[in-house]
Amino acid sequence: MTMTEIAKHDRIAGPLHLMSIGGRRVTAAAGQSLDVVDPSTEETIGSIPAAGAADVAEAVAAASEASRWWRALDWRARAERLWELSRRIEESAQELALLDVVDSGNPLTGMQADVRRAVEEVRYFAGLGGELKGDTIPWTDRQFASTTREAYGVVGRITAYNHPLMFAAGKCAAPLMAGNAVVLKPSEHTSLSSLRLAELAEDVLPPGVLNVVTGTGFAAGSALVEHPDVPRVAFTGGVRTGQAILRAAAEHIKHVSLELGGKNPMIVFPDVDVPAAVAAAVAGMNLRRSMGQSCQSTARLLVHRSILAEFTDRLVQAVEGLRIGDPRREDVDMGPLAFAAHYQRVMDYIEVGKSEGAKVVTGGGRPEGMDVGYYVAPTVFTDVQADMRIATEEIFGPVMTVLAWEDYDEMMAMANAVDYGLTANIWTNDLSLAHRTARLVESGLVWINGDGSKPFGVPFGGTKLSGLGKEGALEELVGYTRAKSIVLNIGGAQH
């Protein structure tokens, strides 16, 4: 699409975008709506329904009804429908990517990659359906015992704003393939591509199998978590919201999985190829894809003092070489942050870092000449101490902290000193040292000489405050089912 076509596209700029409940496009029962703001221009480009408890209840009822038929289907029939949905996503890739660009501020090339990943993830889980197997248990001459796996029925799926379409499609794939109907509540800041996904699924998935309700976490999200007919809830987002979900879910003893935040270390040993390590640090920070708004970003760079000067100089050159601008342009590396309140939060953290005594060696505010939009220049802090807030709290933006170390044990203590444990990246050419460090670091996923990418099938999930459960692998698919034990009495009842 040309820039003119983008501006005129009715999927992107327009009036109220409708929710999908039971196969119908609807407004909120109370008639309320939320503005859709383009973070690159700060202009309102449309609106979405602000769902409340009544809307969520309607969606849950539709999902409950649909789940009875959907989970009774042979798994191959569900897989065929998910494959068809993935084909439609692929055919609409440019449109979906553009929706995320204007809705989230993420650059076009990053969102094109997100759509490709979503397609692959839907197909990955469609292909795993036959692995939902039970077990047989050693039996006697009078009894045969086995287990089978059954869908929960209705799954509430709440997604974050940083990868809108990829999360909407990819994170609904496993519960759908497992035989559940889904009520999806996307972030109120980035709902457009989720609503378009529901339209693409309308005559592929039976009515009520995939419902999309939009609105705030306080209203729609809470109603979904608290609904007694939603036994399974999955959430991607911040720690405080995850804790609130756990408390609310306890009322009905729901099964909850949480993919929360991270303050992830990249540990750089003195034997590395410094330019390669710097390139990996920038890639792992996800600056080009989401401006550092990523739970797995390598925001803490623990660099051996002997290479600190060279590493920092090259890091500054690398981030200053990133092109910041209109995220619709394919030659732009970084766009704005997703919404105004988050922009202010990141800017506040930069001021906190300065007040704590850390040194800004590049960035530290708006990019020069960009006075409109929620833009933050990629920022690198040096002279950072391990107990500073910018070194311990998740900023979720384009802010990198460089911490020097010399003693291995002190470095490991520093790496594990935060409340999070999502990912870690270890850079060294010493294989024994790499494995030793990987065992000691408190993270759910560890790269050795990595850049943040991983193949399909690698479980993703953290320890400590980074969450509960694993995603992106067979464990996720199994996690949307529960085991039932069946004992067959062959020779009559036991006495």
Report what the structure shows.
With 495 residues, the protein is of the alpha/beta class. The chain has 2 domains: 3-260 and 469-482, 3-Layer(aba) Sandwich (Aldehyde Dehydrogenase, Chain A, domain 1); 265-455, Aldehyde Dehydrogenase, Chain A, domain 2. It contains 17 helices and 22 strands. It has helices at 3-8, 53-70, 75-91, 93-104, 108-127, 164-177, 192-200, 217-226, 239-249, 274-284, 287-290, 308-320, 340-355, 389-392, 408-415, 431-440, 474-479; strands at residues 19-21, 24-26, 33-38, 43-49, 136-137, 143-151, 154-158, 181-185, 210-212, 232-236, 255-259, 265-268, 300-304, 359-362, 379-382, 399-405, 420-421, 423-427, 445-448, 463-464, 467-468, 481-489. Strands 14-15-16-13-12-18-19 form a 7-stranded mixed beta sheet, with helices on both faces. A 6-stranded mixed beta sheet has the order 9-8-7-10-11-21, with helices on both faces. It has a 3-stranded antiparallel beta sheet with strand order 5-6-22. Helix 3 (75-91) runs antiparallel to helix 5, helix 4 (93-104) packs across helix 5 and helix 6 packs across helix 7 (192-200). The longest helix has 20 residues, at 108-127. The radius of gyration is 24 Å and the shape is globular. The termini are far apart.
Comma- or semicolon-separated keywords:
17 helices; 38% helix; Aldehyde Dehydrogenase, Chain A, domain 1; 22 strands; disordered N terminus; alpha/beta; 495 residues; globular; six-stranded mixed beta sheet; 2 domains; seven-stranded mixed beta sheet; Aldehyde Dehydrogenase, Chain A, domain 2
